[in-house]
Specification:
Largest sheet: 2 strands, antiparallel
Structural class: mainly alpha
Strand order of the largest sheet: 1-2
Distance between the termini: 39 Å
Number of domains: 1
Order of helices and strands: HHHEHEEEHHHH
Number of helices: 8
Helix content: 55-70%
Number of strands: 4
Radius of gyration: 17 Å
Shape: globular
Length: 194
């Protein structure tokens, strides 16, 4: 299994992280220090989320790569500006998973079960929940750690919404209890704890 990245994929992940850093900074001061801090936090939140999807999909034999969605980034920026940062629609792109692709060995055709598809979908929000829980004991110490917890919790909740094409729609279809546990933990962290 080759967990490789194309130069274009790395560039699109970096552009998406910086754009999300700016978008999440709107309404929070918008100074250079705030943008750098939020961008660093996004890099510790959004990138692991996408990589979790990629690596689990590749574990099941699929070809997977992150692709930036320029229209989604522009919409998120306009919406954040229009609402003064009070509403963020975080859809900068997604990991595209290909079950049929050509490689050095010819054409590969992978059949994914509903369980495998749900586990690929769950990997991203689960990564965000784990990061939030990892930094939770430090959240009371400063704004950096509390923001890591909040952004990771927010990304998990947003991605767990049960509407296609979000991750939650695939998880809830496969196993309602799995989805319920994930949305419960991330929702508690996002809306009640911090």
């Amino acid at each position: 299994m080759n967990f490789s990245f194309s130069r274009e994929e790395v560039k699109e992940l970096a552009i998406s992280a910086v754009a999300l850093g700016i978008i999440f900074s709107i309404g929070r001061g918008m100074n250079i220090q705030m943008i750098v801090m939020i961008t660093a936090i996004i890099s510790l939140s959004f990138i692991p989320h996408e990589l979790a999807h990629k690596f689990v999909a590749m574990k099941y034999g699929c070809f997977a790569r992150y692709q930036m969605w320029k229209s989604g980034l522009m919409f998120a920026l306009v919406l954040a500006i229009a609402t003064g940062g009070s509403f963020v629609f975080a859809a900068p792109g997604a990991v595209m998973i290909y079950t049929a692709y050509r490689d050095a060995h010819g054409v590969q055709q992978i059949g994914l079960s509903a369980k495998q598809n749900a586990l690929i979908s769950a990997a991203g929000p689960l990564m965000n929940i784990m990061i939030a829980l990892l930094f939770l004991p430090l959240a009371g110490q400063n704004v950096f750690f509390s923001t890591i917890v909040w952004i990771n919790s927010f990304l998990a909740v947003f991605n767990l919404l049960p509407f296609p094409p979000l991750d939650g729609s695939k998880i809830i279809w496969y196993n309602f209890l799995m989805w319920g546990a994930m949305i419960g933990v991330s929702g508690y962290l996002c809306f009640f704890l911090i």
